[in-house]
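Q: Hi! First time doing this. I have a protein sequence and I read that you can turn it into a structure. Is that right? Here it is:
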Amino acid sequence: MRRAASILALVAVCGVVVALAQRDSPTAESARLRKGAEIYLREGCSNCHSIAGKIAAKGGVRGVPLDGVGTRLTAKEIRAALLKPRPTAASTVALKMKSYAHVSATDLDNLVAYVGSLKTLDTPR
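A: Yes, that's right. Below is the predicted 3D structure, encoded as structure tokens:
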């Protein structure tokens, strides 16, 4: 069951990466978001967080949903949450997210850009 959910999450994130690749012309920003989505997948963020409100197809339930996080938090706040995570009142499970201090500065910038691009409640970017 867990493996199936992981495969579904992988397919969903790959779909996001493809959608980003096909968007407009290839710009530095779209490349950054594409790389950020790849890091999101590589680091296993979807094991705990959902995107677009779809738990089974887009991620887990242990972390807060990331829908609209780009409208609630600044890039600086997202970076701080990735580097020094803390349980939030919004989380129903008191699990502490792992720190992403181990990723390179460039990868962290790309991940922050991707998470910050999640502006709507129903459509991942």
